[in-house]
């Protein structure tokens, strides 16, 4: 069973930056399309950024130009660099593959507030 562990969240002021990490067990990211998702209170989980096994990326319109997804296959880690954060980015952030989800990790809380 694949285990996903997200980290790097925290409290940041509007306009600030955070870098999230997602570590996976085994060499799974090189052969799977991966995504970062977020879930805000009272809302459904949504995809914010995706990266294919070959490294192509795509983003939700709400984060385009501010967030960057990347991965290090050797370290079995996917990253999400978040810049110019806004209060509406506040959510729990998760990583998982794009289809046939593995068991969700605990996520990492991102709070954007002054």
The level of helicity is: under 10%
Strand order of the largest sheet: 2-10-9-4-5-6
- The structure class reads mainly beta
Distance between the termini: 40 Å
Number of helices: 0
Overview of this protein structure:
The chain has 114 residues and is mainly beta. 0% of the residues lie in helices and 46% in strands. The strands form two sheets. It has a six-stranded mixed sheet, with no helix packed on it. A four-stranded antiparallel sheet has the order 1-3-8-7, with no helix packed on it. A hairpin with a 6-residue loop joins strand 4 (34-39) and strand 5. The protein is globular and about 40 Å long.
Topology:
Elements lengths: L3 E4 L2 E3 L5 E7 L9 E6 L6 E6 L5 E3 L7 E6 L4 E6 L8 E7 L10 E5 L2
Parallel strand pairs: 2-10
Antiparallel strand pairs: 1-3, 3-8, 4-5, 4-9, 5-6, 7-8, 9-10
Q: Which features does this protein show?
A:
globular; 46% strand; mainly beta; 0% helix; four-stranded antiparallel sheet; 10 strands; 114 residues
Give the structure's gist in a few sentences.
The chain has about 110 residues and is mainly beta. It has strands at about 5, 10, 20-25, 35-40, 45-50, 55-60, 65-70, 75-80, 90-95, 110.
């Amino acid at each position: 069973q694949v285990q996903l562990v997200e980290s790097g969240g925290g409290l940041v002021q509007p306009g600030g930056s955070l870098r999230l990490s997602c570590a996976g067990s085994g060499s799974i990211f090189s052969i799977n399309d991966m995504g970062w998702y977020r879930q805000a209170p009272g809302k459904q989980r949504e995809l914010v950024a995706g990266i294919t096994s070959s490294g192509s990326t795509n983003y939700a319109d709400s984060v385009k130009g501010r967030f960057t997804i990347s991965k290090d296959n050797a370290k079995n880690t996917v990253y999400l660099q978040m810049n110019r954060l806004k209060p509406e980015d506040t959510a729990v952030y998760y990583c998982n593959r794009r289809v046939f989800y593995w068991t969700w990790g605990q996520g990492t809380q991102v709070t954007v507030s002054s």
